Predict the 3D structure of the following.
Amino acid sequence: MAESRRVTFRISRGDGARTELVDYTTEVTPGMVVLDAVHQIQAESAPDLACRWNCKAGKCGSCSAEINGRPRLMCMTRLGDLDLDMPVIVEPMRAFPRIRDLVTDVSWNYRVKKRIKPFTPRPPDAPDGSWRMVQADVDRVQEFRKCIECFLCQNVCHVLRDHHKHEEFAGPRHMVYVAALEMHPLDTQDRLGDLKDADGIGYCNITKCCTKVCPEHITITDNAIIPLKERVADEFYDPLTRLFRIFRPRRAADR
Amino acid sequence: MSRVDIPLPQRPALGETRRRDRWWVQPLLVFLGLGSFIVYATWAAFQGKHYFVTTGGADYLSPFYSPVLFDAPGMTSGHSWFGSAPQWWPGWLPAFSPAFLILWAPGGFRFTCYYYRGAYYKAFWADPPSCAVGEPGFRGKKYRGERKLPLILQNVHRYFLYLAIPFLFILSYDAWRAMWFATESGGREFGIGVGTLILIGNPILLGGYTLGCHSLRHLIGGGIDRLAGRPVRSKAYSCVSCLNRGHARWAWASLFWVALADVYVRLTSMGVIHDMRIL
């Protein structure tokens, strides 16, 4: 997009009970992102348009939405990357209940997170209460710490989005959270039973959609979910590993 | 368990999406690619002939038939481990083909592979057809994923890995044999034909695929939290992780190549094409 032009935005309005797509036309200039356009529409023609946002830098995870059907952060979606000859469709995330317009109720995620067993380090290694770790061992979980909790991965996951398994499946975001804890070199807690039952890791059928939409480029499926699935298989489905563990139990440090 | 208090949007219908890109291209290509391979591999397995080449002094063996535990009736490939067709093969089954004893293992490895699972769930089951695209309505809340039978059996993948690894050595040996051509004096001389290059490519690509397996990655180091102080495992984990990053590419390249190798051996054996000797 080389010059400023007028563009139509088709924005989903409503509160869940009644929703509709409403067209707004506004002037856009080079360098603008979708969130800029939404703010401009708020200022010009729809002051009651509800939209959650905070940092405008892709780090707070607040402005998650569906832009032309693709789950994305509004603040990180450049208008220059979209086809502006057609109306730009902006909708709220589908996997969560809509409160109003583009704002959804994502509190379910916080409730799920609360039930995950917290970080439980082994006793300190030194008398001053500190631990010793090797950088390479921490590097593996460092990737998972990048998560900004935008919940785009939860939104695109068909187990939640299409099958509404919120009561049985924790979703990719929480798989990443569990992976960060479970693979941490200091952690001693065992979460594999919860992963199999309460968190329903078996529901994931590896579509990798979560990885594709992650704005932090976390390799969710390959580095978090599949390694956890393998650990669950070790613990519950693999008779040879279970037999092997009779003679050589898993060390607490590897839990 | 947490509950959602506000109603969620209605489930989208099959194929319903606001995506404007050609989201259907990738699952369609997977459907055509995998579907073609399955049809061809099944057909080739039932043939029981044209699975080796000895013309021109070559010693090529189709990877679909390797290792040849028993030759097919009336065939002498020179690769058989236990001689000619087994007497115990039940008469009510289709005519014995050496591939029947072999193909289930690499086939099972691919069928249960994490990459292929994600790909064929989309392409063959529309589960989902693509990311953020609606699924068939009949599944709805009844969706079970890999949590219950039958798909919980996908956890057997690691056992197929154990079976797949020896194939790398066997196919490497086949590639080695493909480098030695029979001479008129009855000996063998080193040589390279087009078939040799194809059979050398096979274990290389299959190696890239098999050694980048998610289960192997777990086995080699992913299953423990502390790799420091274990230099060999640490290095092996890095190597497997490196291959794992391109697992999908290795999967397709090796799938294509193994089919190409069979087609080449088959057509050469049938006399449709002639193996060109390079060296």
